[in-house]
Design goal:
CATH superfamily: Creatinase/methionine aminopeptidase superfamily
CATH topology: Creatine Amidinohydrolase
Order of helices and strands: EHEEHHEEEEEHHEEEEEEEEEE
Number of domains: 1
C-alpha cells in the first residue's frame, strides 16, 4: 500500500475525519451513471468521477479475535462508529531486518503470503464483479491463513485492500461498481502475519482494455523491474527513481510523485522513503534494508492527482489512466531478494 508524501499525508489527516463524518450521514450511491467518457488522447475507457466517491463507509468485515492485529487498529474498530474510535497505538520495531534471524524468516513469510494472495486474486478478476467482491476474496484468503489485512483500520480505512480503477492513482476504496471489460484495476494487498507486514500490488487488464491501456500496464511493470535491478548493498536509493522515470518518459508517460515506496517489516510504513522519480537522495542501501518499490505511472505528462471526498481515493487531474505494480525487497549481503515474487 503506497505511502503518501508528507504534504499529501498532512492534507489527508486534516480533512479525513471531517469528511468521514459525512460518510456516515449521507445515503449510499447504488447507480454508476457517473462513469464518463475518457479524454480521446489517452484511449477508450470509463473515467471514474468524484461523484462516485463513497458516501457511507461499510462496516468492516469481521476478523477472528485469535488473529493478532497491528497496533494502529483501534481497540473498538469493529464495534464502534468511526467518530467513537479510540486512538490506535504505534507500531514498534527497528528499521530494517536482522539477516539470518527469526526476523528475516518472519518478514519473508508475510511477504510470500501476500504475493500468493495477490496471484490468486489475479486469477478471478473479471468483468461484472465489483471491487467489493475482490475485497471479500482478499479478506477471506487472509483470515484463512491466520493473517490480518493490514489496511483494515489503518487511519480508519474500512476495507481489507485497495482497488484503483482506470484514472484512480491509488487508495481506491472497494465498492459496488461493477468492473467493465475495458477497465484496468490495481489491487494492493498488505497482510500482517506473525508480527510482520507483507505488501504487494499489481494492475490487472480486463479482456477488452484498449492498446493504450495495455501499454501503460506493460511499461509500469517494466519500470518496477528496472527499479529492482539497481538494488543491492552499497547501491544508491536515488538510482531507483532515475531508471523508473527515464523508462516512463521514453514511452510518453510520467511518474506521480505524491506517493512513495517505504520501509516495511514490523511496521507497515517506515523509513526509507523510496522515490520513484529522479532525485538527489544520498542514502545507500545496506544489508537488512527492507522496503517496497511501487511506481505509479500516468499517461501523458501531467501525473498529479486530487483526493476525493471519501478521504482516500486519489484520481488523476486529467482523467488519464494510472497503473502501478509493487514488490517488497530485502537487501542481502550479496544482492536484493524480491520477497513478494511467487511465480
Amino acid at each position: 500500500m503506497t505511502w503518501a508524501t508528507s504534504a499529501a499525508r498532512c492534507f489527508s489527516r486534516r480533512s479525513r475525519l471531517a469528511r468521514l463524518t459525512r460518510c456516515f450521514s449521507s445515503p449510499s450511491k447504488t447507480e454508476w451513471e457517473h462513469n464518463t467518457p475518457s479524454p480521446s488522447q489517452f484511449g477508450t475507457y470509463a473515467v471514474l468521477s468524484s461523484k462516485s466517491a463513497m458516501e457511507v463507509y461499510p462496516p468492516p468485515r469481521p476478523v477472528p479475535e485469535s488473529i493478532p492485529r497491528p497496533a494502529y487498529v483501534p481497540a473498538n474498530f469493529f464495534t464502534a462508529p468511526i467518530w467513537e474510535h479510540l486512538p490506535g497505538g504505534e507500531e514498534v520495531g527497528n528499521e530494517g531486518i536482522t539477516l539470518g534471524s527469526r526476523e528475516e524468516d518472519g518478514v519473508r513469510a508475510a511477504a510470500r503470503m501476500a504475493g500468493e494472495v495477490l496471484r490468486a486474486v489475479g486469477q478471478i478478476v473479471e468483468p461484472g464483479m465489483t471491487t467489493d467482491d475482490i475485497d471479500a476474496v482478499v479478506h477471506e484468503m487472509a483470515v484463512k491463513r491466520g493473517a490480518y489485512p493490514s489496511p483494515l483500520g489503518y487511519s480508519h480505512f474500512p476495507r481489507s485492500c485497495t482497488t484503483s480503477v482506470n484514472n484512480i492513482i491509488a487508495h481506491g476504496i472497494p465498492d459496488s461498481r461493477p468492473l467493465l471489460a475495458t477497465d484496468i484495476v490495481n489491487v494492493d494487498i498488505t497482510l500482517y502475519y506473525n508480527g510482520f507486514h507483507g505488501d504487494t500490488s499489481a494492475t490487472f487488464v480486463l479482456p477488452a482494455a484498449d492498446a493504450a491501456g495495455r501499454e501503460l500496464v506493460r511499461v509500469t511493470r517494466e519500470a518496477l523491474e528496472l527499479g529492482i535491478s539497481v538494488c543491492g548493498p552499497g547501491k544508491s536509493y536515488a538510482g531507483i527513481g532515475k531508471v523508473i522515470e527515464e523508462h516512463a518518459r521514453k514511452h510518453g508517460m510520467s511518474v506521480n510523485t505524491q506517493f512513495v515506496g517505504h520501509g516495511i517489516g514490523r511496521k507497515f510504513h517506515a523509513y526509507p522513503h523510496i522515490l520513484h522519480h529522479k532525485n538527489h537522495e544520498r542514502g545507500l542501501m545496506k544489508s537488512g534494508d527492507c522496503f517496497t518499490i511501487e511506481p505509479p505511472l500516468v499517461q501523458g505528462t501531467r501525473p498529479r492527482g486530487g483526493v476525493w471526498d471519501d478521504g482516500w481515493t486519489v484520481a488523476t487531474d486529467t482523467g488519464a489512466r494510472s497503473a502501478q505494480f509493487e514488490h517488497q525487497i530485502l537487501i542481502t549481503e550479496t544482492g536484493a531478494d524480491v520477497l513478494t515474487r511467487v511465480d
